[in-house]
Amino acid sequence: MKKGKSYFFGIWMLTALLLFAMNSCGPAKAESAAAGLEKSSVHLSESAQQNAGDLPSGGAKTAPGNAPEPASETAVFNSAADAEQGEGSQEAYRYEEYPLERNHQSLHLDCVNAEGNETERNILLVHGVTYSSHEFDIDYQDYSLVRALTREGYAVWRLDIAGFGQSEPVEDGFLPDSDYAAEDIHAAVEKIVQVTGQDKIDVLGWSWGTVTTGRFAGKYPEHVKRLVLYAPILSGVGEAEVSEAFHHNTWEHAADDFQRKADGSFDYDCADPVLIEVFCSNCWHFDGEFSPNGGRRDILVPASESLIDLTKLKMPTLIICGDRDPYLNYDRIRDVLTQLPEGSELEMIPGGSHVVYIEKPYYHDFRERLLRFLSK
């Protein structure tokens, strides 16, 4: 059995055992099972790290043979995770990769669609500063935002910025900064326009992805129908020196965005314990031990420094976030509509954090607000 297959089989077995315990062993044993998962997480993530690919001494991960395949080669499957929730249990999802190159770098761009769905509704999702676009498609229960959007009739496109995820590694981790990433997004949107024949598409950026998509949309407004800035980093998050070109990823860092209790343990009322493990293990599998630091250097500046020129945005824009996100400048967010064009909206979800889109009490609310805006 190949390493990748054994890795995913291990996650599947762990998930199945935990769900069995939580559903059939009673509340006390379920809590014990969840606690056991938390204790075993670091061990599992070390196993995941071994499957993430070899890492060169220079800092960047090696390319795991990840140049995009021709679009004619596709993967189609029925999601057992969706079947568990009763959503789309008979529905197949079609994943297609599209060759894309910019600045002599191969970029990972794929499109996910419901099998048989011929749609004119396209949306591009853009990731944040450390981990790549796999975060939008968590294969557990109905937590995948990608598949939720496909069920609503969207073709969902995902881009990994240069050096991230399944895109080709970069030698210099400072190369893909915010402006560089904005041009990667432009290249991806031009490819989508070419493939679909549409002049404009919807674009969603998360966290640092709001900086990159915001700069892209300000420079190329002719290609953007509606813009979604989720957990927007509108200004610097605090001045700090970034001397290393690559960020050292750890399981603990990947888990930092999930809400905690006063004693430091995960708040399982907010996030499913299996979801946390799958999320963090995917970070190891797709992103490896190192991620480029150009974007991090851009945002670790004083809070007085603006990162997005909102006056350049000419399309309806949704600002959506939780009200407990430690990275956000809420004074600026509450004032944001005064700088955005007509048709723009602000949606703040009480209790939600930086990962509100996958938090148990809030993720359905997040989707409803998002879809309501996109459908206008």
From TrEMBL:
Protein name as annotated: Pimeloyl-ACP methyl ester carboxylesterase
The entry's cellular-component GO terms read: membrane
Biased-composition ranges for Polar residues?
Answer: 42-52
Origin superkingdom: Bacteria
Q: Which ranges carry the Serine aminopeptidase S33 domain?
A: 119-360
> Which InterPro entries does this entry report, sorted A to Z?
AB_hydrolase_1, AB_hydrolase_fold, AB_hydrolase_sf, Hydrolase_4
Q: Which organism is it from?
A: [Clostridium] aminophilum
Keywords of this entry: Signal
Give the region (Disordered) as residue ranges: 41-90
Q: Where is the signal peptide?
A: 1-30
